[in-house]
Amino acid sequence: MARIEIEGGRTLEGTVEVSGAKNAVLPILMASLLTDQPCRLAGVPHLKDVTTTIELLGQMGVEISLGEGFEVGMDASHLSTQIAPYELVKTMRASILVLGPLLARAGEAQVSLPGGCAIGARPVNLHLKGLAAMGAEIDVDSGYIHAKAKRLKGARVVMEGVTVTGTENILMAATLAEGQTIIENAAQEPEVVDLAECLIQMGAKISGHGSTRIVVDGVDALAGYDHRVIPDRIEAGTFLVGAAMTGGRVKLVNVRPDTLDAVVDKLREAGAKISEGPDWIELDMAGKRPKAVNISTAPYPGFPTDMQAQFTALNAVADGTGVVTETVFENRFMHILELQRLGADMQIEGNTVIIRGRDRLTAAPMMATDLRASACLVLAGLVAEGTSVVDRVYHIDRGYENIEEKLGQLGAVIRRLPVS
Ligand code: EPZ
C-alpha cells in the first residue's frame, strides 16, 4: 500500500497553485455523453477519480484525447454501450453520474449500484426518484440499475434531501427532456453551478442554478463545450488549514474566494489574518497557535462536510475546546480514531466530537480511510513531533493532485515511501 512520511514541526510558507475542482470535473466529463459534438475541458487535475471517469467513458465508446496541461477532449458521437460496470463503479461512486446523461441521450442505461463507502451508506434513491418523476422506468436487479425512457418528460421534482450528484443527474437529464423541469431543494454547490454553466454553453436552457430552485427548459439536441473547470475549493481550504495549524503564511493562486466564505470565516475565528483577490487568497497566522472553533457541517453555502476532517486536525492543536458536528454523512469520524493515536484529546458523542486542543501531538503511524480523512492525517503529521507515516494514501490520490509536491513547495518535509 502507498504510504506518505511526514516530518513534524515545519511551518508552511510560500505560494502554491490550486488545481481544478474534482467534483466539478467528474459531472462535466459525464456531460459529454449528452451530445454527439466534440467537447473539451481544460484545467483538469491529474487524479485517480479523473482517470477512472475517462476509463468509464472510454469503455462506453467515447473517444478521449488528452492535451497538454491535462486538457481532455471527448467525442461521444458513437456510444457502443450504455453500461457502467461494477468493476469501475465500485472504485468511484460518482460513476452514478452517467445515469442521467445516458437516459437523456440514449434512452437507456445500466449502472451498477454504487456500494457504500467508509463515510456512509451513500444511497441513490433520490436520484432514481427524480428520474422516475421524469418518466424513466427504473428497475434495480442483481446490483444494477436498469433505466429506460423513450424521451424524458419535464417535471417538478421536489428533492426530499439536498444531494449534490442527485441534483446534477437530474439537471443533466432535464436538458434534453420534453418540456420544463423544476428542481426544488436543489444543491447550491459551486460545482453544480459550474456544470450548469457548461450545459448552458452547450445550448441548454437553465436558470436558478446556485439557488435551491433550478428551472430547465428541455431542448432537442445539445452542442459540444469548450470549458475550463473552476478551482478546487476543498483543496484550497485544506492548504489554508495546514498554514493555520503550523503558524505559517501561505498564498494560494487559482482560487475562487467567493466559494470559500464559510471556511474563511472559521479560519478568521481561529485567529488567521486572511486577504483575498479575484483569484488568490492569502492566510497569515504570524506564528500564532490557532484558537479552537465550533463547526457544524451543512449543504452549501453552509460549512462543507469535505472540510470537517481538516478542522478536527486544527482543533486538535488549537487553544481551547472545539465542538465539531457532522450533519451530512452518518459515519464521517473515522479520522478521529487515527488522530487519537497522535495524542489528540477527542470525545465522540453521536454525530458530534468534542476536541480539547493540545499544544503538542506525537508522531505515530496512521491509516487513511477516505479521501478527506487522509488529508487531515497528513495535516496532523505536519505538527506532530517526530516522523508520522500515513498508510493507504491511495485515498488521497483520488482527490489531491501531487499533494506531497505542493506541501513540499510550502516547506513541509514529506515524501512518498516505496510500496511495502
Ligand atoms: C458529493 O457527494 C461529493 N462528491 C462529496 O465529495 C461531498 O462530500 C458530498 O457531495 C456532500 O457535499 C461528488 O460531488 C463527486 P450527496 P454526493 O448526495 O453527491 C444522502 C469528496 O470528498 N443521500 O450530496 O454523493 C447521502 O447519503 C466527496 O470529494 C441520500 O440519502 O453526496 C448523504 O447523507 C466525498 N439519497 C447526503 O444525502 C440519495 O439519493 C448528501 O449526499 C443521495 C444522497
Ligand roster: ligand EPZ
SSE class = alpha/beta
Mean pLDDT, rounded to whole units? 96
Could you describe the largest sheet, including whether it forms a barrel? 4 strands, mixed
N- to C-terminal distance: 6 Å
Strand order of the largest sheet: 22-23-1-24
Taking pLDDT < 50 over at least 5 consecutive residues as the criterion, the unreliable ranges are none
Work out the helicity level: 25-40%
The number of helices is 14
What does this structure look like?
There is one protein chain. The chain is an alpha/beta fold. It has 14 helices and 24 strands. It has helices at residues 22-30, 48-58, 86-89, 99-106, 125-133, 164-174, 190-201, 233-245, 261-269, 308-316, 334-341, 371-383, 394-397, 403-409; strands spanning 3-7, 13-17, 39-42, 63-66, 72-75, 83-84, 108-112, 137-141, 144-148, 156-158, 180-184, 205-207, 213-217, 226-228, 249-253, 273-276, 280-284, 295-296, 321-325, 345-349, 352-356, 365-367, 387-391, 413-417. The chain has a four-stranded mixed β-sheet with strand order 22-23-1-24, covered by helices on one side. A hairpin with a 2-residue loop joins strand 20 and strand 21. Helix 1 (22-30) packs parallel to helix 2 and helix 10 (308-316) packs parallel to helix 12 (371-383). The longest helix has 13 residues, at 233-245. 52% of the residues are buried. The model has no long low-confidence stretch (mean pLDDT 96).
Considering the chains and any ligands shown, give keywords for the structure.
alpha/beta; 24 strands; elongated; binds ligand EPZ
